[in-house]
Amino acid sequence: MDSADGPRDGSGADTAGVSDLQTLAAQLRRMNSEINRLVHAFAHAQGLHATDVQALGAILDADTPLTPGRLREHLGLTSGAVTACLDRLERSGHIRRARESSDRRVVHLHYEPGAKAAARSFFMPLAEAAAGARSASAPQELEATLRFLGRMNGELARMQVPRR
């Protein structure tokens, strides 16, 4: 067998694809674990819950200001849990709720600039690690990685998961 063909499982079937998928899954879990470790440390330092930090990320990454309802859908939480989360975030100075539209019932969520700066400072080592990995990669590798992550996030967003 040519080593470029990959391992075989005795039936003659190529198992390299399975091995690659298992390796990819392990690396994604490892990266998720490392990021979760940082998120939990930030949450602890700020007196927040890890879910609060997820909410902050969603508010930060949204193309347009989120509403509590859209945040609830994104996080898969009950409306009561989202209200408690937003209350904690507002009390701690991380977000503000604003009624900006002609319909005063619509509430938009905004990440406060000072809190955003604190998060940026805390997560600077993560940004530096990403910059280090990027500088050690060829431009084509980065482009392929970004395309893959975009596709992966699209697939994950389409997954139906039970809502609480």
How would you summarize the topology of this molecule?
Elements: H1 16-46, H2 50-61, H3 68-75, H4 79-91, E1 95-98, E2 108-111, H5 113-122, H6 124-135, H7 139-158
Antiparallel strand pairs: 1-2
Helix pairs in contact: 1-2, 2-4, 3-4
Count of DSSP helices?
A: 7
User: Which segments are poorly predicted (pLDDT under 50) over 5 or more consecutive residues?
Assistant: 1-8
> On the 0-100 scale, what is the average pLDDT?
88
Instruction: Give the biggest beta sheet.
Output: 2 strands, antiparallel
* Structural class category: mainly alpha
How many individual β-strands? 2
The spatial strand order of the largest sheet comes to 1-2
Cα radius of gyration in angstroms: 20 Å
Please give the share of residues in helix.
55-70%
Q: Which geometry do the CA atoms define?
A: globular
**Proportion of residues in β-strands:** under 5%
- Measured distance between first and last alpha carbons: 51 Å
Element-by-element helix/strand order: HHHHEEHHH
Please characterize this protein's 3D structure:
- 65% of the residues lie in helices and 5% in strands.
- With 164 residues, it is mainly alpha-helical.
- A two-stranded antiparallel ribbon has the order 1-2.
- Helix 1 crosses helix 2 (50-61) and helix 2 crosses helix 4 (79-91).
- It is globular, with a radius of gyration of 20 Å.
- The termini are far apart.
- Residues 1-8 have low confidence and may be disordered.
Short description:
It is built from seven helices and two strands.
Q: What structural keywords apply?
A:
164 residues; mainly alpha; two-stranded antiparallel sheet; 7 helices; 5% strand; disordered N terminus
